[in-house]
Amino acid sequence: MSIRTKLLIFALSISLIPISIITTLYYFNARSTIERQTLDWLTAVAESKKVHTLSFLDSKKGRVIDFSSDGFIRDSLEAISSSETQSPVVNTLIRHLEVNKKPLDRHITAIAVLDINGNVVASTNKLWLGKDMSKATIFMSCVTKNYGETYIGKSYSVPYLKENCIFISAPLTSRQEHKTMGVIINAYDIAILDEITTKRAGMGESGEALLGMRKGDSVVFLTTLKYAPDMPLSKSVPLNSSGAKPMRLALEGQSGAIIAPDYRNIDVVAAYQYIPEMNWGMVTKIDKREVFALITRLRIFTIILGCISAIVVIAIAIIVSKRVTKPIQKLVEGTKRIASGDLGFKIPTRSKDEIGFLAASFNDMTSQLGESKKQVEDYAQNLEQKVEDKTKEVKHMLVELTYKNKEMEQIIYVTSHDLRSPLLNIQGFSRELQQSFEQVLPVLNESGISPETREKLADALEEDIPDALKFILASSSKMDTLLSGLLRISRMGRVVLAIKQLDMNKLISNIIGTYEYMIKEEKVKVQVGELPSCKGDNAQINQVFSNLLDNALKYLDSDREGIIRISGENKNGHIVYCLEDNGIGIVERQQTKVFEIFHRLNPAGNDVAGEGLGLTIISKILDRHGGKIWIESEPGKGSKFFVSLPA
Ligand code: ADP
Q1: Over the chain, what is the mean pLDDT?
Q2: Are strands 628-634 and 180-189 parallel, antiparallel or unpaired?
Q3: Pick the residue with more confidence: 532 or 348?
């Protein structure tokens, strides 16, 4: 992950985490505050509406009491009650009710005056007139009351009145004896309650106040509903259903606030109050959605704010990370250029921070590195020059050495060649002298030499002269051998090589063929593996392996059966052959000396014929071929002669 990405993630986390925590806390706090405030406020509204309803009903009760104190009504009822026949008083009373009483309160739907038997003797509503209400609670509960008391009916539908009504009754007493003569009932259209509940000022769009009552197993609403604008009492909700929970709680006699579904089954924030006087429930409510609309807006606002802050933070982080990473990038680019060998490159950063210091240190380091490199280059150049000079010197020496070598070979050749003729003379004359002496000696013996003289000559004639002659002949013969060896060696340098690919299997088998007699004689086992071919001069390489096989056969151990193994393999482009024997072996300190000219191991005690030239010749031949020879040997166990030649 790049530094820029890391910075981005870091900046985003340190800025967005607190923002999200704060806004979340703020959101939940605001939500609970709003919820609490709304519930408090709705409770207050519900209480005020309850008070309003009760005072409204009180005013209506006052009106009925006022009517029950009306002297004309009381007198008229007294007159009607005491007369047996329908008197004209009834008409006058009806007219009085219509003209003088009903207009006093626009909410009154109808007024009825009942006699002590519960019969409607006068009414502003013709349909009501003459009805028997002796069994009606509104009559029965009221007739027992005293003057100035009222009764509010709990039943709101009357078959002979069109509207659903609230009935308020008061006893009518005689003016003199204060004896109850009947009852006056004011009927109010139940819709008057809407005046209280439909005032929804300050309750928002979905706010609503409603009154309800229990009817059997249902909740019945007494007021016109905002979302079911039918007649009051026409909407009912079963008590055991999930809807209208606030109203149900109110009708159970409780007061409080709650978030629960309303009669539409939509969640509302509601306050509910029980009105015990009427056994009604009062509910004020607002749709939860509306209450929390502000919160929803706040949430959207928070999300937008979060996004904006994220964008701003990202932008700032990008700018900052660019400013931070740019010098680092320059540093990285610079190091790459320096790493590629451009030590003169200076990292262009002017930042005054750690990166700036780092770049400056880097620049210092590269300039020092540059200087060191220059020194190394100078040194290398000098070294090259020195090597070149030395090489020239060595080449020159080599040429000189080759020349000297050739010269030496020439001298050796000439010397050994030229020395041979005097040597041959010495040998010839010595033999002649020996023969002559052998002829002279009997003559001397036979001649008349005195015994004294013979005694004097005896040592010289019988020992000294023959020994000297033998010694001269042996030494000249040894010298001859040495000279012919030297001649062979010096001749080798002149032979022109004909290098070609050699079939070594064939070459070795020819050599073995040459030594077949000796192999059989000595009862030696010769094992030859599959041999890879090499490059070389056929005759010279033949000489190499003939000499090696010859030595292996010569220096076998007489105590065990001789085994000679010949193998070969390709090692890193060179063919390495190995000729292994189980002969007498060579001590380690002699393993390099055996290649020296005329060097033989223990030549005095050695009865094996040889000149000490074989291995010298081999190493010279291999030198000329670009090859090598080396030994691995252990006295008493055997020797391995390795020969390496170009493939
Ligand atoms: P020469 O065999 O004529 O003496 P070389 O140069 O061939 O001369 O060998 C030098 C000496 O190395 C030998 O005299 C012998 O002592 C020793 N030598 C060579 N080959 C073997 C061998 N296969 N086992 C033991 N000794 C060896």
Answers
A1: 87
A2: unpaired
A3: 532
User: Would you list the DSSP string of 274-334?
Assistant: EETTTTEEEEEEEEHHHHTHHHHHHHHHHHHHHHHHHHHHHHHHHHHHHHHHHHHHHHHHH
Phi (first) and psi of residue 144, to 5 degrees:
-90, -5
**Span 406-428, pLDDT tens digits:** 888 788 888 888 888 888 899 99
Is there an atom of ligand 1 within 6 Å of 580 CB?
A: no
The token pair at 274 is 């029980």
CB 317 within 8 A of CB 34: no
Handedness of CA 34, 37, 40, 45 (dihedral sign): negative
- 554 CA to centre of ligand 1 in angstroms: 8
Half-sphere exposure of 406 (CA within 13 A, CB side): 7
Helix 614-625 × helix 538-554 angle, to 10°: 150
Q: What is the pTM of this model?
A: 0.49
Higher pLDDT, 226 or 86: 226
Q: Is 551 in the pocket of ligand 1 (CB under 6 A)?
A: yes
Q: Is the Cβ atom of 409 under 6 angstroms away from ligand 1?
A: no
Residue of 524, 554, 597, 606 best suited for mutating to test ligand 1, as the one with most atoms within 8 Å of CB = 554
How many Å lie between the centroid of ligand 1 and the Cα of residue 551?
6
Taking the C-alpha atoms of residue 618 and residue 145, their distance in angstroms, rounded to an integer, is 160
Over the stretch 480-527, which tens digit does the pLDDT of each residue have? 888 888 888 888 877 899 999 999 999 999 999 999 999 999 899 999
- The answer to whether the CB of 613 is under 6 A from ligand 1 is yes
